[in-house]
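Protocol step 4 of 6: structure prediction from sequence.
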Amino acid sequence: MNNSVSIFIKNVIITYEEKMIEQKTIYTYKLQSLEHPSFDWVMSFAKKIIDDLPKSVVDELYQDLERGVVQIDDEPHMFVYLYSFGKMHKAKLDCAFAHLPNLFYERTEINIIDYGCGQAIGTMCYVDFLLSKNISQKIKKVTLIEPSEICLKRAALHVSKFCPDAEIITLNKTFDELSYGDIVCEDTTSNLHILSNVLDIDFLWGNFAQLIKDSLKGHNQFVCVGPYFNLPQIDLRMDKFADFFRGNNDFNKVFAKFQLNPEKEWTAHIRCFSITASKTTPFLGQIDKYKKIKIIRENGETVDAQAPIIISASRSTDIPAFYADWFFHRLKMGYSAWTNPFNGVISYVSYKNARFFVFWSKNPKPLLNHIDELKKMNFYIQFTLNDYVSEGLEKGVPSLDDRIETFKQLVKTFGKGRVIWRFDPLILTDKITVDDLLRKVENIGDQLFGYTEKLVFSFADIERYKKVKSNLEKNNINYSEWTENQMLDFAQKLSNLNKKWNFRLATCGEKIDISQFGIQHNKCIDDDLMISFAKNDKVLMDYLGVEIVNSLLEVEKIIKKKDNRDKGQRQFCGCIVSKDIGEYNTCPHLCEYCYANTSKDVARKNYEQAKEKGLMAETIMGR
């Protein structure tokens, strides 16, 4: 543990009885000495700690939290979180609990599943609420799910004091890492599912929801609370999650500023619903999309590994540009490993069942060193070929002429259609106008005419991506957001340009409908494209739910019986299910608008470390 934490706790936390729980800390002794624990006491203890710190330190700790959305990995930040957001969380949860059906409080025994529990604020507030209403209800079991180890151990400590008779189960996992069997509900005991300030975070919620749904037994009461942003792409996540279960809608309300508390600018979106699960066998297809198998690592250890059918390489880093040798080495070895950026947990991906690969790159030239391997594979390449040379927004990419030549070489080598042109994202700044972007697109389009059939683009949505916004501001890029009128203007003019190319035009992850200009919504991980390249691969076609009907008298028919869309992606993303094998903070292209790197220095350092390890280790970074 680092020194900044040890001033608060010493000999901090231990694990015993296969359960993560905090023990032998000052906080432990203080909490255990209480006769009647309460969340108010927990907040007041945090306040005492914070009040003793210099304001500059408190301000720095608060800024680190990024309004409470980043993972907490030390005790100072746990205290600052409670000090800054504890009362707001309690107000939202109390409002939600007050609107649960009376029938639920008549149940004498319940289990609690606290998702993304943090320090178990949801469970503590529920116990306080029961006491405040003189409701007698036994809490039989509490399942705590949290990627931060230090928060999970404190959560278990809190629950052991607030619910002394309850069985405690701790799951140190992100939602994406959960598997069937982790969430255990009971037929005979009601189950309270608490999702406090987690559904506004961008993650694969569709897979998560399906896993919960397949785990349900008996009666289930859901409590979902979070902030209200007045941004549909974020605010609708909670409604989409709730609607997925098709349960009884017990309470659904949005609170603007000062409505939840007339003295506070707190906002809230609260949704409560209940569902009684069918006793039929659950459908496990969605949660089994990455079938688990046993593999033997290079060191002889046997481990569980995901074995996906479709591999994405990668949205998180430029594998073709910097890690092509690593990728083909790992493909030969049969597996690779991936380190979770939030909790450091390593998971494994087997290539045993892989049938199709989608590459993403701004410089896929190194793939030309692996022609023989690629000709044995089913794949296509998403080639992001932008022109921000004069503005210096992509300092690490080769010259525009070199990249255009690489595009042509790839098409000549692997065939037309396997290389897709992306101009992504389209960024507006004080130096780049809509017409400037159109001139850039026209210049590249003229040179790629005859080599590509498609152009995919997106309008940079800076405010939505905190890393992008932070990186642009740190680098003094005076960006501006696209207005709807500007999008329509660009689309119309691009459509006119396209009369000489006849490319298929498509947007990536965009809400706006510009189909009147012949521009469709794209599927970047595209089952239709896979069918066109690999229709003779029966295993892949079966996985995609495709039937190909051949007849002597009729044209070949392709019948799609399955919706393969990855419901865990962004709302307007059309991609189908795949497994991404990249890692953030590893791409040294040094693009000013990067969403995958926290900083340029971190990306450079990680890339240099990977090279020192010879680009052959299980993980990209060689750790």
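Step 5 (inspection) to follow. The mean pLDDT is 88.
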